[in-house]
From TrEMBL:
Its main location: membrane. NCBIfam families: SP. Belongs to the major facilitator superfamily. Sugar transporter (TC 2.A.1.1) family. Pfam families: Sugar_tr. This is Hexose transporter protein. Residues 40-477 form the Major facilitator superfamily (MFS) profile domain. The keyword Transmembrane helix applies. One of its GO terms (cellular component) is membrane. It comes from Colletotrichum kahawae (Coffee berry disease fungus). The keyword Nuclease does not apply. It is found in: Membrane. It is a multi-pass membrane protein.
Amino acid sequence: MGGGAVACGASASDSNYKSVRNNANSKWWLDAGLRKNVSHCVGLCGTLFFNGYDGSLFNGLQTIDAWQNFFGHPKGNLLGLMNSAALFPGLISPYFAELIANRFGRRWAVWIGVLINIAGAVVNSAAINLGMYIAGRVLMGVGISMGLTIAPTLLQEIAHPRYRAQIGSMYTCIYYIAAVISAGVCLRTRHIEGNAAWRIPCYLQLVGPGVTLAMTFTMPESPRWLVRHGASDEALQILGKYHANGDINDPLVRLEYEEIMENLRADEVNSETKYADYFLPNNRPRLFLLVVIAIGTNWVGNGIISYYLSPILSTIGIRSTEQQAGLNLGLQIWNLILSTSAALSVDRVGRRPLWLTSTIGMFFSFIVVMGLSGAYDTQGQQKAVGLAVVPFLFVFFGFYDLAWTPLSNMYSVEILPYNLRTKGQAIYNIVQGSANAVNQWVNPIILEAIHWRYYAVYIGILAFYCVIIYLRFPETKGLTIEEIAIIFDGDRAKGISRAAHVIRDEPHVVGDDHSIQSEHADDISIKQNGMAGKTNGNVTASERA
């Protein structure tokens, strides 16, 4: 059972909710409703577990002699094709995921993606030749991209508002839990005789989708999706059940419900949303951020290290496959610790400081990696110089984990209004899949041709991102996902904050039609002819009030 009506300020993640009374225990693990809510959110994170396991797995497989022998020691173009085969489906499958999510519900898009993941993992693991192996990876790519398109959106829309930021930022950190397991399994099985050495790690790819199915089987549909499709009664019941232990008159539930209603009323002005809507003046900044973040997730230097650590280590004299496998495991553990710590601080530190510190730190550490790699190659391949590169690979990823791991998915979801959210995530994943496919195909080819000189490309990209983040990334710390719309939509979205102010400060009950009844109910409604406008910069305290 939940605790009494308490203000869980210590656990708050969205400052708008800190002072609102809520029939939930301040410690989620002691509250029945919140335990279910967190369990469903963790289940959705399983969609990224599969992605993280696969990312580390391809590194680990390259250290297993049986895998190398079975596929004829692939290099260059073939190695790039084998890796990027799982990425090319991301060019189109997010579009179909968005259609399914908007028509049939968020849950169905996630579940269909999970089932495709399972089919792909079985085909890939049982491969009897190169073609079957690649076909399995293509299927897995379809499932992965569908999950990555919809799961972060659904997670943000069902999570309790006081834990939304922490859970949302932890979503990407699940990647490294999977990566650690994958690296550890490959290190353990590499000594097994025969093809079981690489098939066992491949079959364990089934863990991620299996966990997601089990933990999301009883998951509710997104309340925002239900309201949009005329099921407001069910939406309110879900909010009450999972956020206030069944109390639909709970003040926090009423606040959430009315903010959702106000946000969707505003969206009704342009209810038939199209991808072309992203080119409207107030949405162009959103589109810019989506594209920049999506490309950056694998083009800021991490892509080449994540997937091609083995050949990188070979260029600095570390050629023992056992040493390479051990370093891969150590790097994944390091990533897990750093990214989890950063995820827990996103609301305390803020988004912009993390983005800037992360990218600037990566820029300088990659310069050191390039300098030491060049010195090793041009000055007699001294072992000490080669070994000096290793700690700076860890430093580089430490900075990457400050922002790019916890924020990339969460930030790209929270800047989007409901009516554009799944389309935005489809755009994000299509761009990310395209950029990553190109990145993973060309990396081994260019690395084999020019070695450490290739790092200069990533140093230039990092310099560009430092400038872009400083100039164009707004701060969203402490805002609800409805309030963030004010940054981009200005006066059109301010009615949502006015509604929240009335709900917090006025006595009210939920009426028969589930609308909020108060002395100033008229102040809550937004006149449709006043929903135009845009603003630049951050939201001020007066605007939020």
